[in-house]
Amino acid sequence: MGKAQKYVLLGDATYPLQDWILKPYQEDENLTQRQLQFNYRLKRAHSVIENAFLRLKARWQILLKCDDCSLELLPTLVLACCILHNVCEAHDNPFNEEWLEGTEPTELPKPCQPAPASMEDNRAEQVRELMCQYFENCGEG
């Protein structure tokens, strides 16, 4: 993109725009085609992430009942499950679609009301604009 970028988290419209939280443009009739394409790609990426976590929870059902462990252990537990999943995939132990039967997609907690504009970071708009340009220039995908 011509400028070094940090990692960002994907959020929906209720989160404040920050240089580390990427959120869609507010849906209205004034959006450009580029902004609509950006929103579409952000939604697609978000659905891929949701599907990945659903599959991770289906393969490692200990993640369905993480209330059994301490909060300090939780990041290590999730990381261990990710590593084990990759080991299984690398050794031709594929994901079994039947595992999904016991796992329901869950909505992650998120703010009920949109964040006030005062919480938005003006520099973050530059990050979103760079991503928007990148999506426009990288073609369909």
From TrEMBL:
Keyword Cell membrane: no
Cofactor(s) the protein needs: a divalent metal cation
Transmembrane segments: none
Stretches assigned to the DDE Tnp4 domain: 5-86
Annotated InterPro entries: HARBI1-like, HARBI1_dom
GO cellular component labels: nucleus
Gene Ontology molecular-function annotations: hydrolase activity; metal ion binding; nuclease activity
Localisation: Nucleus
Keywords: Hydrolase, Metal-binding, Nuclease, Nucleus
Protein family according to the UniProt entry: Belongs to the HARBI1 family.
Name listed for the protein in its UniProt record: ALP1 protein
